[in-house]
Amino acid sequence: MAKTLTSIPGIAHYPHLNKPDTRFDADGTYHVKLRMDTDEPEVAEFIEWIDAEHEKAKQTFIEKLMSDEKKPLTKAAATKKTKDGDKPYVYEEDEDGEPTNMVLVNFKMKAHVKSKKTGKEFDLEPKFFDASGTVLKGNRKPLVYGGSTIKVAYTPQHWGSIKLGASIRFQMEAIQIINLVTGGGSDNADDYGFGAESGGYVAPEADSMPKSSHADDDDDDDDDGTGDF
Hints:
Mean pLDDT: 86
Largest sheet: 9 strands, mixed
Shape: globular
CATH architecture: Beta Barrel
Distance between the termini: 48 Å
Helix content: 10-25%
CATH class: Mainly Beta
Radius of gyration: 23 Å
Number of helices: 2
C-alpha cells in the first residue's frame, strides 16, 4: 500500500501542521484530524473503504503470524491473537455520549525519522499547496488554524502487533488549503456548534453601533497588560 492518495475536503480539527507536536513524542509529529459528515455520500464511501482496509490489515497480520519462521501459528491461533487495532477515525459524540454522523479522520507524519536500512536520520514536514495548486514555501506558508477547509495527500499503511492489534493508518505527505482560517479561531458559528437561536440577541449593523466615549482616551489608560486577554 505505497500509493499516495488524496482525501476529500474536510474541516481541520486541532491541526499541528506548521510546527510538530512534541507532547507525546520527543521527535515530534505533524498531525490533523479532518471533520467530515457521513451523511455526504463521498464521506460514507470513504469510511466504508477504511473499514474494508482495516479488515485487510487484520488478515495480513494473521498471515504474518502463520508464516513466522521461528514460531508459526495455526490460522485459528493467529486469528485469536489478532485484535482490532484503532482505526484512523472516530465518530463525534453528542452531549449524551451518543455517536453522531460526524467523523474525525486522523492523518500523521513523523517530524524526525531514522532509516531502518541505512541508519540515516532526517527531518520531514508536510508540503503546503494553495487552492490553485501552487506550492507554498518560506514566508508564503500560512499558519493553518482549526476551522480551515483542507485536503490531505497521504499514504495508507497497514500495521499490526500482538499488543495493539491490526488496522490501517494514514501517513500524511502534503495538504492543500481550500479555505484558510489563520491568526485565531474560525468566524463560522457552525465550526463551534452554534446554531441560530430565535428570540435572542442580534447584533446591530456596524455602522449603527454607538462610538464609545473612551475609544480614543489613551491618556487615562491604566492597563498594565495583566488582564485575561
